[in-house]
Design a protein that fits this description.
Radius of gyration: 22 Å
Oligomer: single chain
CATH topology of the largest domain: FAD/NAD(P)-binding domain
Shape: globular
Number of domains: 3
CATH superfamily of the largest domain: FAD/NAD(P)-binding domain
Number of strands: 28
């Protein structure tokens, strides 16, 4: 096995695969992908439901079908693939320490690194639900793997906490497998998943969604026997008189995702507090030259199609970095989250992208609104307004910014979402 490469990709999920293929098409010849699981595709192989590929391929695919389209391209390429390989350290010099059963401890150096480690689910311990330590408590993704990959049924009487997309999808999956799904309980006053998942997974299967509700206690002997559910007020505080017990043998948790950035922290790269991922420019390059990030390690996405699109931006950026074709960094234009914006990706524009006439911004709002405008403000003046029918925390908001509106004297642009007032640019 070689020890030197032009590009090392950490993670063989949708982001890692798409970025590697994008970089290869742009002329990067010496690429290795390091994947810790025994198969490529990340979470996709266990997502056997449809709904993937509508944006990127203009056709409806299952998760395994979507992954296979990229795996087939990787197999046909000369990109080196290493599965069951765990990266345990990366430094700012782009030196990687990894291990697998074939080679043991490996040292790999590369001219560029793509971080594509994905994310993990929050657990019961992360949200501190009191009660007994029991069998029958799963994150929704773990239950999905048990059901779709391993062929085991997690339980028969199910309560789901949280309305993230995996939780909604698993509510339907459990119902289809014959389980009694007693309800989905969401702390916030709105669903945290895609609208289509709420409709197709809950409404179409008569599964109740209880907003402003949470689980306050889990009890049982060896396995879950009951949970205490309560309503919360506008400050998300439990209303004691609303508490009631629900019998069940299984609790699924769909309470958020955390980008896997332990390796990123080891490099010394600053993380964005709101995304949990590294701060990046328009080509998804971090503050450390030659280290890029894409996919859910950067910020949590709703659609794998957008993961792919963003990863291809990173792959193109890596090619420009390695081939020396990009403009040199001068001054950065900071993108700041304003009213009802939780975060904006990219965090800044370095004016290093030489091949595009617009920059796509990915953002999330803090609370739902209808008939809105996305405002770009510079020096308290509106540069551009984009019309949107709605803005929801559970659905990514995107706008395309024409690069011609920027000038390199600008230092900061603030992005806000406000109630629609006048005419703006119409984007889907």
């Amino acid at each position: 096995m070689k020890s030197k490469y032009q590009l090392a990709v950490i993670g063989g999920g949708p982001a890692g695969m798409a970025a590697a293929l994008s970089a290869r098409k742009k002329g990067v010849e010496d690429i290795i992908i390091l994947e810790r699981d025994k198969y490529f595709g990340g979470i996709l192989p266990q997502c056997i439901h449809n709904g993937f590929g509508l944006e990127y391929f203009n056709q409806e695919l299952t998760g395994p079908e979507y992954a296979t389209k990229f795996i087939d391209q990787l197999i046909e390429s000369d990109i080196e693939l290493r599965d069951e390989t765990m990266v345990i350290d990366i430094n700012s010099e782009k030196e990687i320490t990894a291990l697998n059963k074939e080679y043991g401890v490996m040292k790999i150096s590369s001219e560029a690194v793509l971080l594509a480690m994905g994310c993990r689910e929050r657990t019961r311990e992360n949200i501190k639900i009191p009660g007994d330590r029991l069998a029958g408590i799963f994150t929704a993704g773990t239950a999905q793997r048990y059901t779709n990959i391993e062929g085991f049924m997690p339980g028969k009487d199910v309560v789901i906490l949280g309305s993230g997309d995996i939780g909604l999808i698993m509510a339907r999956r459990m119902k289809l497998e014959g389980a009694n799904v007693k309800g989905v309980f969401e702390l916030m006053p709105y669903s945290n998943g895609l609208i289509r998942n709420k409709v197709q997974c809950l409404d179409d299967f008569d599964i109740p969604l209880k907003l402003n509700h949470t689980i306050t206690r889990i009890e049982g002997e060896d396995r879950v026997e009951r949970v205490k559910v309560a309503e919360v007020d506008n400050n998300l505080k439990v209303i004691p008189e609303s508490e009631k017990w629900i019998s069940c043998d299984t609790v699924l948790l769909s309470v958020g995702l955390i980008p896997e950035n332990e390796l990123t922290k080891g490099i010394g790269i600053d993380l964005d507090f709101n995304t949990g991922g590294p701060k990046v420019n328009e080509l998804r390059e971090t503050a450390v030259s030659g280290i890029f990030a894409a996919g859910n390690v950067l910020h949590v996405h709703d659609l794998v199609d957008w993961v792919t699109e963003e990863a291809e931006i990173a792959g193109r950026g890596i090619a420009e970095y390695l081939n020396g074709n990009r403009a040199k960094r001068k001054k950065s234009l900071q993108l700041e989250a304003g009213d009802n914006i939780n975060y904006v990706i990219p965090n800044k524009i370095d004016f290093v992208d030489t091949s595009r006439k617009f920059i796509k911004l990915f953002m999330r709002v803090n609370h739902p609104m209808e008939d809105v405008e996305v405002h770009l403000n510079y020096n308290n003046k509106v540069l551009l307004k984009y019309n949107k029918d709605f803005a929801l925390p559970g659905e990514m908001l995107t706008v395309n910014l024409p690069e011609k509106i920027f000038n390199k004297k600008m230092k900061k642009i603030k992005i806000s979402v406000k109630k629609k007032e006048g005419e703006g640019i119409n984007e889907k």
